[in-house]
Amino acid sequence: MTSSLTPLPQSRHLATAIPGPRSQALHAERQAHVTDGFGIALPVFIDRADGGILQDVDGNRLIDFASGIAVTSIGASNPRVRERVAAQLERFTHTCFMVTEYESFTQVAMWLNEHTPGDFEKRTALFSTGAEAVENAVKIARSATGRSKVLVFDEAYHGRSLMTMAMTAKENPYRLNFGPFPTEVVRAASANPLRPAASATATTNDDGVPASGADVAAAALASVEATLAEYGAESFAAMVIEPIQGEGGFIVPAPGFLKGLREIATKHGIVLVIDEIQAGMGRTGTLFASEHEGIAGDMTLSAKALADGVPLSAVTGRADLMNAVHAGGLGGTYAGNPLACEAALAVFEAFEDGTLLANARAIEAAAREVLEPLVAETDVVAEFRGRGAMLALEFADRGTLEPRADLAKEISARCHAQGVLTLTCGTYGNVIRLLPPLVIGDELFRDGLAVLRQTIVDVAAGRDATATEAAAPALA
Ligand SMILES: *Cc1c(COP(=O)(O)O)cnc(C)c1O
């Protein structure tokens, strides 16, 4: 669709300090009217966004390493999305799919049934948010199995509703002061290769040889079996896991762990739910991240990038499970809203020729080339990890692995001041994550990588911010 706006230049540009005066004024106004309960990564107000650029109200152009948390993968003003959503806007905005039907809902379901992992008959239910998809997966699994418990994992993130908070691992900020939580949620060890849970493994074997990834996976799987035995495997409806843990720190599980979970779930008749809300929809270089592990969940959850920013989420699963629920048991006023379904169909079209998946892999290659050497070159980058365009650096002291959230915070703030929007994550807040849009240009991406790399080198060496960085006022 042609736009009335001039194309947004795909280059970084600092017109003012970050945040600029207009952003600061708008932020002050926000503080007078909006709850303080929302955090903010960078108090900058955005005017336009496209490709790899966010343009703020002061005319600064920031390089987008966030994609609105893995959402705007095909660009924040993608022409296909604009065209389909605009056409739908002219026809109707809403009927409620439980009142009268529209075809796009079925078409989204059809695509997900065909493209999610698993060579079996599937059905899909659409909702609006990721947390809703997780909640509904639990409802469906309970209804289908007649069991109640849900197994979740260390470092998990599944959302901010009451059930999904219970399933999320990190207390602050997600759960603090918000309890009590629903019961029947049991947490097991995950297979974090850098930081194996004490319950899951020794870091060396009997001969003092450092544990390998396979050791970490085997030990974590043994711990999962022990947890299931303790709580009664036959009382678990579902186990829910992210194929790459997102908010928990972009943790790629030790090789073999997810395959092992698949086997354990099958053995005990537990529904395996793969939460692909952050890692799915092409982010990691395959349509779904479970493809890297050669496994299929009994249910696969999608949201975030599914409709390029128009709220839409999905539970796609085995037909027998999805149809076990009584008629009328699932739904929601906005579930599978027609504007969102049209946006999702545009996203599916965008993925058709394979270019975006190739882009995700090229993003990984470029970032690996620039950032991975920092592990050897500095004493504070413990790991470069991730897949495709879902990448992270963990900051910790060499040897002790003492987490260095202070460094992640300082580096992120200095990147922001230079016009590169990075985000942090992780149980210890010591991880910087990269989630660029898959449509970011190579030159722009490399400019952002160069800024990030130099900033890490400077901070690791204890050097002060450069003149450009120092010009920026401290963030609120
Ligand atoms: C973001 C996220 C959710 C929650 O999605 P919302 O749309 O914020 O409710 C659930 N699971 C994972 C893995 C996520 O990254």
Give an account of the 3D structure.
The structure is a single chain. By secondary structure, the protein is an alpha/beta fold. The chain folds into 2 domains: 21-64 and 355-471, Aspartate Aminotransferase, domain 1, CATH 3.90.1150; 81-350, Aspartate Aminotransferase, domain 2, CATH 3.40.640. 36% of the residues lie in helices and 15% in strands. It contains 15 helices and 15 strands. The longest helix has 19 residues, at 213-231. The protein starts with 20 loop residues before the first helix and ends in a 6-residue tail after the last helix. The model has no long low-confidence stretch (mean pLDDT 95). Residues 129-131, 134, 157-159, 242, 246, 275, 277-278, 303-304 line the site of pyridoxal-5'-phosphate.
Q: What radius of gyration results from the CA coordinates? A: 22 Å
CATH topology of the largest domain: Aspartate Aminotransferase, domain 2
In CATH, the architecture of the largest domain is 3-Layer(aba) Sandwich
Count of domain modules: 2
Structural class, by secondary structure, is: alpha/beta
Mean pLDDT: 95
Strand fraction equals 5-15%
Large-scale geometry:
globular
